[in-house]
Amino acid sequence: MIEIKGVTKYFKEKKQTIAAVQDIHVTIAQGEIVGLLGENGAGKTTLLRMLSTVLEPSEGNMFIHGINIHKQPDKIKQRIGVLFGGETGLYDRLTARENLAYFAKFYGMSKHETKIRVEELAKRFGMKDYLDRRVGGFSKGMRQKVAIARTILHNPDVILFDEPTTGLDITSANMFRELIKSLQREGKTIIFSSHIMEEVEMLCQSIIMIHKGKMIYQGTNEQLYKEEESTDLNYIFMSRIVRGA
Questions:
Q1: CATH code, domain with 235
Q2: Which ranges carry the ABC transporter domain (predicted)?
C-alpha cells in the first residue's frame, strides 16, 4: 500500500517560492495500477521523485507498506523500481549485460542470482541478440528495454514509470503495455504518468489528476465516468482542467 498524506513540495525560483505540488492526499492499494495525468509542469514528476526518495517533501509524509519513505529510505529503495522518462540511467560504454550486473550490485543481488535474472529478462524482452553489445550504439527502443529491465531487475513491489512510452515505436510501446499487464498479474503496485489517454484507459483501474500542483481527481475510472457522464477520458481531462476541480 502507498499512502501520501498532506504532501507539499516548494522550490525557490528567482526569490520566489513556488509550490510544485500542494497538499496531496492519496491512498493506493497493493496490486493497483494507477494512471497519473496532468499537463507538463503540473507536478507529476515531482510527486514521483518524492515517492522514489530522490526528493523530500517540504510538508507531509509518504509511506510504502507502512514505512516512512524519507525517514527510512534504505528500506524503501530495495522495494521500489523507478524509470523516469528520457532518463535511462545506462552507461554507454558498458554492454546491456554489464549495465544490469552493475545495478544488481546496488540491490545486493548475488552473482548467481544476477546471472539467472538477467537471462530471464533478456528472454522476456527479446534482448538476447544484443545483450553483450555496448549500449552506446542502441536505438531508443533497445535502450528503453534495457532500462525497463533495470527497473524490475530486483523484483520490486512498487514500480514508478514517468512517461515510459514517449518516443517509442509501436512495437516497443506494445511490449511495455504487455509488461504492465504481466506485472499486475504478479501483484505489483504500479504508478505511471502518461499523456496517452488510450494507454491509461487500457491499463489502469484508477486515475490521479493533477493541475497546477493540486489534485483535482483521485478514484476509479468507473467512478470518474459516472461523475462526468462520459467515457471519453481526453474530454474529461480537459474539462477538469478548465474547471480546476
A1: 3.40.50.300
A2: 2-237
The one-character DSSP state at 114 is H
Domain range for 22? 2-79+156-243
**Residue 33 is placed in which grid cell?**
495500477
Closest CA to 130 of 99, 152, 104: 99
Give the predicted TM-score (pTM) of the model: 0.88
Given a contact cutoff of 8 angstroms between Cβ atoms, the answer to whether 36 and 86 are in contact is no
- Tens of each residue's pLDDT in the chain, 245 residues: 899 999 999 998 888 898 999 999 999 999 999 999 999 889 999 999 999 999 999 999 999 999 999 999 888 888 999 988 666 689 999 999 999 999 999 888 999 999 999 999 999 888 999 999 999 999 888 888 899 999 999 999 999 998 887 767 788 788 888 888 899 999 999 998 988 888 899 899 999 999 999 999 999 999 999 999 999 999 999 998 888 65
Residues 184 and 216 in one domain: yes
Amino acid at 222: E
Query: In b/e form, how buried is each residue of 152-167, taking b as 16+ CB within 10 angstroms?
Result: bbbebbbbbbbbbbee
Q: Based on the domain organization, do 56 and 107 belong to the same domain?
A: no
Shared-domain flag, residues 193 and 146: no
Element (H, E) at 217: strand 214-220
User: Structural domain tally of the chain?
Assistant: 2
